[in-house]
From TrEMBL, chain A:
Keyword Glycoprotein: no
InterPro entries per record: ArpA-like, DNA-bd_HTH_TetR-type_CS, Homeodomain-like_sf, HTH-type_TetR-like_transc_reg, HTH_TetR, Tet_transcr_reg_TetR-rel_C_sf
Residues in the DNA-binding region annotation: 31-50
A Pfam short name: TetR_N
Annotated organism of origin: Streptomyces avidinii
UniProt lineage: Bacteria, Bacillati, Actinomycetota, Actinomycetes, Kitasatosporales
Gene3D superfamilies: Tetracycline Repressor, domain 2
Region annotation (Disordered) ranges: 204-226
Taxonomy, superkingdom: Bacteria
UniProt keyword Manganese present: no
HTH tetR-type domain ranges (all copies): 8-68
Name of this protein: AcrR family transcriptional regulator
Keywords of this entry: DNA-binding, Transcription, Transcription regulation
UniProtKB/TrEMBL annotation, chain B:
DNA-binding region of this protein: 29-48
Pfam families: TetR_N
UniProt cross-references to PROSITE patterns, sorted A to Z: HTH_TETR_1 (PS01081), HTH_TETR_2 (PS50977)
Species this chain originates from: Streptomyces avidinii
Protein name: AcrR family transcriptional regulator
InterPro entries: ArpA-like, DNA-bd_HTH_TetR-type_CS, Homeodomain-like_sf, HTH-type_TetR-like_transc_reg, HTH_TetR, Tet_transcr_reg_TetR-rel_C_sf
Residue span(s) of domain HTH tetR-type: 6-66
Keywords of the record: DNA-binding, Transcription, Transcription regulation
Amino acid sequence: MARQERAVRTRRAILEAAAAVFDERGYDAATIADILSRAGVTKGALYFHFSSKQELAQGVLDEQFAEGGVPHRESKLQELVDVAMVLAYRMKREPMLSAGARLSLGPGMRDIFGGGSVPGWIEFTRTLLVRAKEQGELLPHVDPAETAWILSACWTGAQIYSQTLSDRSDIEERVAAVYQHICPSIATPAMLARLDIAGDRGERVSAEMRRGPGRGATQEAEPALS
Amino acid sequence: MQERSERTRRRLVHAGAEMFHRNGYAHATLGEIAAAAGVTKGALYFHFASKDELAEAVQQRGCALLHDAVRTLRQDGVSPLQALIDITHWLARTLHEEPAIPASFRITKECGGPAPRGPAAARPVVVDFHGAWISAVSTLLRLARDAGELPAAGRRWESAQALVAAAACGIETMSATGMSYAELQGKVAALWALLLPSLVAVGREHEYRTEAEFTGPQAVRIGW
């Protein structure tokens, strides 16, 4: 048991080191040697967990999704906003996430990772929009697949825009702006009135998640749905 | 004589753009670029002292194409907002048809990005092509506001600007993850159909053409 725990910790340390190196240097320029010296593990330990640079990058990408969850909401549109805002909030703070974005959106990555996490992200968004539509949260003309693509494009674009102009310091406001402008065109007026798309939404949901479930946190943050 | 030298230079920039676009800055070699351009390595070095210099020339070409496209659209006499819609369609098309454009983005992504914190990696001084694109889009959006086309955005100008810039950047990132031109063209049109209501006066969104247009002068391909 103790041994297994140690292996999990080592794997995590390697992935964190890999994320930091990919985030700083990009996939092409990153080397296993950089990752080794950053992680402070032996070559043998690294190769026990990952056989190549590509596997390390895949590990970083998978981690993005492993950590992507937010509390379930009655409103699926709110849940979607929460996912986007939490990701924006954490992107500034966690190399694992910003490295994931750099790997997914990096040039040439489609050949290596099949588009990184972008196709999965679009599909995730589409699924939530389909459920939102079934629950009557969306206007009748909304096409979930088309809208999922547009929201994903705007999310990645907001990330680039913020990175270009402010080194990501305003990413949450930029992502919030995307949803604030697009939601009125897709949500029913009743739903829209209840949506919380403030710039600090990600921070508040993250705090709620840290407090953990079963303490009434969900109730507190959930906008009332009648 | 000078004309021939000019032609060789153009061929090299084109071959460089193609190579940076396909293989990336890190993997492109000057030998391959010279071969693709059909010139000797010596001839390449006569024009460009290094890979950095060639990359810079490719990005300058990208910027020149972008500025020409904006100017052409403005001279066509369409409204600034229509010009903005059209320039995003221009981007979707040139990302597929004109290697200098995707190459310029790729060089920015590979060599720009956050300031290097690690060991001083060899990073050429590059044009921030994302910045150039955002600035072109923002200028058209400002002109549209000044022309009174964006009453719905007026109250929340800064966030409207962020939205449009994000959408414009998103077209490039999504194209880079693999998507045919026909598909991308349809997505760009759908994107504008969704954005327009939050920008223009109620009911006026139908006055704008959200699809790509290929009959106007802007459809003329800018050749090498």
